Amino acid sequence: MTVFLVLGIAGLAVLALSLVAGDLLDGPFQALEADWISTAAIGGFVSAFGFAGAISDDAGLPVPASVVIGAGAGLVVGWFAWWLTRLVKNGPSDGTLSITHSVGQVAQVVTDIPGEGYGVVRVVVGGHSMRLNATAHQPIAAGTQVNVTGVLSPTAVSVAQVWQP
């Protein structure tokens, strides 16, 4: 039982180290082009093997049965750790938000937009509020909803008043 407990604790240490050090420990596996191996999967396997084996051994099962039960538990936990790390590493991420994402969005005029010149609009894109300089073909009062129709510069857009029936 002591060997199983030592393996379980060692597996937990490897898991903790993989959380702290992250991908640094996966470098040798990448050199081997073994993408299916990760330190989290190895730590999960070893800790589940050790603790399940210790529980089985403590329940009075013979050592070979404890090894088989520990290996089964280790495979399940190791696969789950591998799956979770792949899910996190290969998951989609939102790209950097830019002014071009505001085109076609509805914005609120913050400061009046004169016929010749710029005012300010606030547009929400992907949950982020952006304040942009805006120009239009006709004057638009503050508080009016507008559509962003184009990008003029990294900080300015053209807008048109939203048609309301």
From TrEMBL:
Keywords for this protein: Membrane, Transmembrane, Transmembrane helix
Entry keyword Transmembrane: yes
Regions crossing the membrane: 36-56, 63-84
Protein name according to UniProt: NfeD-like C-terminal domain-containing protein
Species the sequence originates in: Nocardioides ginsengisoli
Taxonomic placement: Bacteria, Bacillati, Actinomycetota, Actinomycetes, Propionibacteriales
